[in-house]
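Exercise 7b. C-alpha cells:
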C-alpha cells in the first residue's frame, strides 16, 4: 500500500469554490503527498491541481510548479484566478524568483531539455501526465532522476493507461510508490510468444487494482464518491466511420518481386507512410464533403502529417492551423480564439492541441482526417469537446482508407480495454471510496496454509508449505527429489508471507531457501540424487539501468547454494530451448538488433537440470 507522506487538511483550508468531489480529492491527494488524479474529462483536474499545489507548498514550504503541455497554460491561469492564486510562466532556471508566492507554470520540453531544474521546487504536479506511460520514452527516462529530490509529486490525466495496464506502474515509479521493476515482477507475467507483451497474473488482478487505488483516484463522475451528479451528464457521442477506396492496382511488390494482392498499412511503417500519402487526396475530399453538408457548425480538424495540414489549409481557406514550429503566443491565441467561438475551423495534430484544451463551449464536432495507432492521442482529442458541461451531442468522424482497416480495429480494441480499466477502478472506488484502511484489509497477507492431503496405494500428494512438509518427513526416507524451484522473485503464487516468490531480490530468495535445502539433504537417502530445474533470467536494460539486456546467472547461484548446504554437485543437463521464441520475448538475438548495436547482443539461454548427490 502507498504510504502517507503529506498533510491533514480541514475543509476550511480548501477554497469554497471547489465542488464536493473536488474537495474530497484535494484532501486525499494532499494527505498522501504523492498521488495521481486519474479523473474523467471535465471533472476539474486543473482546478484541483492548483489547490493541491497551493495547500501543499504552504505546509511544506518552498515553491510550487505545474508542468503542462504546450498551449494549456491559459486553462491554469483561469482556474488559478478563480481561487485567488497568481501564476507565472517559467521557461528556464534563470527566470526563477524565490520571492514569488504564487504557482509557477512551465511545459514539459523546458524540463526535459534541461532548461529548468525541478530541484527548485518542493511541490510539482504534472498535468496530462501521459508522457510517463511509455517506459522507454526520452521524457520518462529523464524525468525520473530529475524529480528524485522533489518531496511532493502529483500527476493528473484522464487517460493514464489507454493501451496497456503495464503503463500504469510507471506513474507509481515516478511518484515513488513502488520501483517500476519491482511492480513488473510482482504483478505481471510474460507472454512467451511476444516481447514486452506483459499481462496481469490472473490471481493478482484484485490485488493490483486495490494497490492502484491506494495511490491513484479513478473518478468517472461525482457519484462514484457518493456526491451528486447534477451538471455532470456526459453528452452522447456519435461516431461515424468513413472508409475511402484504395487503389489496389498499385499494391506494390514483396522483396522477392511477387506482386501484392492487397495494400495493408498495418504491415509496417513504410507501408503505413505510403498509404497515408496515396490516400490523402481522397481523405481530404471526404472531409470537405462533410463540412459542405454542415456549413454552420464549428469543427476540429485533426490530422497527423504536415502534408495533411497544408492540404486542409487549401481545401478549407477559412481554417486556422496550429502546429509545433509555430510561435507559442500565436498558437495559444488561436486556441483561445477557437475556444471562444471566434474561429469556425481549427486544424491541428492531436499531439499539439489534443491534450488539456477545452473546446466544448462553442464546438461539438470533430473530424479525424486520418488515423494512426495512438489511441491516447485520439481519446484525448475526442474529449476536447465531449466533456461534462458540454450541452450538445458530440459528433466524431473517422476517415481512413481500406488499407487501414486493421489499424482501425486495433484502435477499437484499445478503446474497449480503456473502458474495462475504467470499469474495474470505478467498482473499487464505489466499494472502498478513499478509505485506506478498507483497502489494507483486502490486501493483507496471510501466514501459513491449511494442509490438504490426497493419497492412494501409488502416491501421496500434499498441499502445504514445503518447508513444514519437509520437516515432517523422516530422515533418510526419500529415494529421489525432482523439483523446479521458483526463479527468485520471478513468480509469486499466493498472497502469503511464506510464498517463496515473495522476495525483493535473489539474496532474499536464497535466504528463504536456507530453510528448505537443509531439510532436503536430511530426508534424502545417502548416495541418492537431488535434481533441480532452473533457468537464468534475462534482465531488461530499462529496468536495471544497464542500457542493454543482461543475464542473471541464477543456475550458478543455485549450484553454490546447494553445495554450501552439503550436496555434492554432479553436473547439469542442458534443456535446449527455442531461440526463435526467446527472441520474440526479448529482442536480443535477432539480426536487426545486431545491425543496430552488436555490443548488446546475447546468445540463446537454455534451461538446466542441476544434479546433486547426498554424500
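Sequence design result:
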Amino acid at each position: 500500500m502507498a504510504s502517507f507522506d503529506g498533510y491533514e487538511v480541514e475543509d476550511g483550508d480548501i477554497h469554497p469554490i471547489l465542488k464536493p468531489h473536488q474537495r474530497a480529492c484535494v484532501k486525499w491527494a494532499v494527505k498522501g503527498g504523492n498521488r495521481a488524479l486519474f479523473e474523467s474529462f471535465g471533472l476539474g483536474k486543473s482546478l484541483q491541481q492548483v489547490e493541491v499545489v497551493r495547500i501543499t507548498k504552504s505546509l511544506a514550504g518552498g515553491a510550487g510548479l505545474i508542468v503542462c503541455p504546450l498551449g494549456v497554460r491559459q486553462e491554469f491561469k483561469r482556474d488559478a484566478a478563480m481561487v485567488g492564486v497568481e501564476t507565472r510562466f517559467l521557461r528556464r532556471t534563470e527566470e526563477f524568483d524565490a520571492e514569488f508566492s504564487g504557482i509557477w507554470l512551465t511545459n514539459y520540453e523546458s524540463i526535459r531539455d534541461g532548461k529548468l531544474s525541478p530541484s527548485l521546487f518542493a511541490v510539482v504536479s504534472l498535468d496530462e501526465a501521459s508522457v510517463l506511460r511509455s517506459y522507454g520514452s526520452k521524457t520518462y527516462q529523464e524525468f525520473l532522476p530529475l524529480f528524485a529530490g522533489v518531496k511532493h509529486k502529483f500527476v493528473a490525466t484522464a487517460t493514464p493507461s489507454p493501451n496497456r495496464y503495464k503503463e500504469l506502474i510507471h506513474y507509481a515509479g515516478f511518484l515513488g510508490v513502488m520501483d517500476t521493476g519491482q511492480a513488473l515482477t510482482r504483478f505481471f507475467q510474460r507472454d512467451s510468444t511476444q516481447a514486452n507483451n506483459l499481462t496481469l497474473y490472473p490471481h493478482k488482478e484484485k490485488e493490483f487494482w486495490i494497490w492502484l487505488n491506494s495511490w491513484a483516484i479513478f473518478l468517472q463522475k461525482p457519484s462514484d464518491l457518493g456526491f451528486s451528479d447534477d451538471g455532470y451528464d456526459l453528452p452522447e457521442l456519435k461516431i461515424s466511420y468513413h472508409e475511402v477506396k484504395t487503389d489496389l492496382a498499385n499494391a506494390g511488390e514483396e522483396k522477392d518481386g511477387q506482386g501484392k494482392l492487397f495494400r495493408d498499412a498495418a504491415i509496417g511503417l513504410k507501408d503505413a507512410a505510403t498509404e497515408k500519402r496515396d490516400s490523402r487526396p481522397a481523405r481530404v475530399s471526404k472531409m470537405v464533403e462533410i463540412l459542405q453538408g454542415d456549413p454552420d457548425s464549428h469543427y476540429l480538424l485533426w490530422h497527423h502529417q504536415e502534408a495533411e495540414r497544408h492540404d486542409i489549409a487549401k481545401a478549407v481557406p477559412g481554417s486556422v492551423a496550429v502546429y509545433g514550429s509555430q510561435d507559442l503566443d500565436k498558437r495559444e491565441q488561436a486556441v483561445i480564439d477557437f475556444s471562444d467561438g471566434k474561429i469556425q475551423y481549427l486544424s491541428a495534430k492531436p499531439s499539439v492541441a489534443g491534450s488539456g484544451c477545452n473546446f466544448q463551449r462553442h464546438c461539438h464536432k470533430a473530424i479525424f482526417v486520418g488515423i494512426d495507432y495512438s489511441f491516447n492521442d485520439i481519446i484525448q482529442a475526442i474529449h476536447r469537446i465531449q466533456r461534462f458541461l458540454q450541452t450538445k451531442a458530440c459528433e466524431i468522424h473517422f476517415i481512413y482508407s481500406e488499407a487501414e482497416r486493421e489499424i482501425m480495429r486495433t484502435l477499437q480494441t484499445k478503446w474497449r480495454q480503456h473502458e474495462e480499466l475504467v470499469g474495474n477502478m470505478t467498482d473499487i472506488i464505489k466499494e472502498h471510496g478513499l478509505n485506506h484502511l478498507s483497502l489494507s484489509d483486502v490486501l493483507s497477507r496471510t501466514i501459513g496454509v491449511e494442509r490438504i492431503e490426497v493419497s492412494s496405494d501409488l502416491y501421496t500428494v500434499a498441499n502445504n508449505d514445503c518447508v513444514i512438509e519437509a520437516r515432517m518427513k523422516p530422515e533418510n526416507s526419500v529415494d529421489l527429489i525432482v523439483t523446479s524451484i521458483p526463479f527468485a522473485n520471478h513468480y509469486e503464487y499466493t498472497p502469503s508471507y511464506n510464498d517463496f516468490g515473495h522476495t525483493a531480490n535473489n539474496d532474499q530468495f536464497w535466504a528463504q531457501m536456507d530453510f528448505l535445502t537443509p531439510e532436503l539433504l536430511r530426508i534424502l537417502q545417502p548416495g541418492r540424487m537431488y535434481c533441480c530445474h532452473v533457468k537464468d533470467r534475462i534482465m531488461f536494460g530499462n529496468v536495471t539501468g544497464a542500457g542493454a539486456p543482461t543475464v542473471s546467472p541464477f543456475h550458478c547461484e543455485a549450484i553454490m547454494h546447494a553445495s554450501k548446504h552439503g550436496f555434492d554437485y554432479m553436473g547439469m543437463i542442458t534443456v535446449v530451448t527455442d531461440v526463435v521464441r526467446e527472441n520474440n520475448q526479448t529482442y536480443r538475438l535477432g539480426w536487426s538488433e545486431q545491425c543496430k548495436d552488436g555490443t548488446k547482443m546475447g546468445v540463446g539461454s537454455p534451461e538446466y537440470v542441476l544434479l546433486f548427490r547426498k554424500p
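Instructor comment: Residues 452-613 form a domain with the Rossmann fold fold (CATH 3.40.50.150). The longest strand covers residues 524-535.
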